[in-house]
Amino acid sequence: MHSYAIGDIHGHLDLLQAAHARIAADMAVHGPATVVHVGDLVDRGPDSRGVIDHLMRGIDRGEDWVVLKGNHDRMFSRFLRAPEEPEPGLRPDLSWLDPRLGGAETLASYGLRNAGDRPVKAVHEEALAKVPQAHRDFLKERPVWHRIGEVVFVHAGIRPGFAMDKQTETDLVWIRQPFLEDRRDHGFLVVHGHTAIPAPHHHGNRVNIDSSAAYGGPLTAVAIEGRDVFLLTEAGRVRLLPDPG
To answer: What is the CA radius of gyration of the chain?
Structure first.
């Protein structure tokens, strides 16, 4: 059994389309399989709306795509529902419209201008008018984890030592420590994003595939066979070997 995963997209439709093309080329050799997107569809990049449209259209035409919820997707949904409501996991001095988080870029893709420089109430009212209900429903309905065989896919990671049915959504979309430092075998390989690094990295018990597309880096796509992970390149598969440390 094999599967595929795509890292944090952050509004980069062109990178997402290229990742899907690499996966299609691999499927032509190895056969079709589920493609899991590990979340953070929106924010920072130029075309969050286009990313959501692309994923919705693919699912509607029958593509075997799983799209998980990331913390940025949840912040977008929360802003649309109740912009004054705090986001668990986010520092209290920040809001989704802070320039460091990229919410204004997401709203710009829906035609809202200068969202970070205007009163929140006015921005929220305009967002409700311009963000299609279908997009709002799609984001709200995203699952927060998915398992295929020996692999659990999740946006941020898991709370070590807790069964998957005991995990909180906030941990699954926000956690860093103690997950990133934990070297134990979780009973499955965890494939995740959320923590941006220069290139995908296999830590033995987890694989981080957030290769910093939000900050000008590439968008990683991997193929997974059992617990073997392969980076998909224009030239084909390159095996990601576990870190011996």
So the answer is: 17
Residue 64: inside a domain: yes
In a domain, 17, yes or no: yes
- In DSSP notation, the chain reads -EEEEE---TT-HHHHHHHHHHHHHHHHHH----EEE-S--SSSSS-HHHHHHHHHHHHHTT--EEE---HHHHHHHHHHH-TTS--TTS-TT--TTSTTTTHHHHHHTTT--SGGGS-HHHHHHHHHHHS-HHHHHHHHT--SEEEETTEEEESS---TTS-GGG--HHHHHH--TTTTT--S--SSEEEE-SS--SS-EE-SSEEE----GGGT----EEEEETTEEEEEETTEEEEEPPP--
Given this model, what pLDDT does residue 245 score? Answer: 63
Mean pLDDT computed over 78-107: 96
Query: Domains in the chain: how many in total?
Result: 1
DSSP one-letter string for 125-146: HHHHHHS-HHHHHHHHT--SEE
Tell me: pLDDT of 244 over 90.
no
Is residue 103 domain-resident? Answer: no
In a domain, 43, yes or no: yes
> Whole domain around residue 205: which residue ranges?
2-71+142-240
